[in-house]
Write a structure and sequence with these properties.
alpha/beta; single chain; Udp-n-acetylmuramoylalanyl-d-glutamate--2,6- Diaminopimelate Ligase, Chain: A, domain 1; globular
């Protein structure tokens, strides 16, 4: 699934101008970065309510395809700039995590455990 489709399904806003043709292989919802490090594989999409720079560091370390901030949470401008400099796509949706994950799963995006 492409980021453009994720954006449409979640009615999400892009936080900077990135390539929406990026392919997403799997997705996972988590707020604990230790869980992300233990369970998510590269080219996955992370859905989280955590807006700290730890999210960007984790995304960079794992080569994630992007991050979706749920519940309308928005990271600070400095975090957006760090993500932009590292070419990490950021989206924000008003849907809560459970619904966001469910909507993407319903549309065919596999979870990380489906590998």
């Amino acid at each position: 699934m492409k980021l453009s489709r994720v954006r449409k399904i979640l009615k999400a806003e892009a936080l900077w101008d990135f390539d929406l043709d990026t392919e997403i292989l799997t997705a996972c919802g988590a707020d604990l970065m230790s869980d992300v490090l233990a369970h998510i594989t590269e080219k996955s999409l992370l859905l989280t309510g955590l807006t700290s720079n730890q999210v960007i560091r984790t995304a960079e370390m794992l080569d994630l395809a992007g991050v979706v901030f749920v519940r309308g949470k928005r990271p600070g401008e400095s975090i957006i700039q760090i993500a932009k400099s590292k070419n990490i796509p950021l989206l924000v949706t008003d849907y809560p995590m459970y619904e966001s994950c469910g909507l993407l799963y319903k549309e065919g995006l596999r979870g990380c455990s489906s590998m």
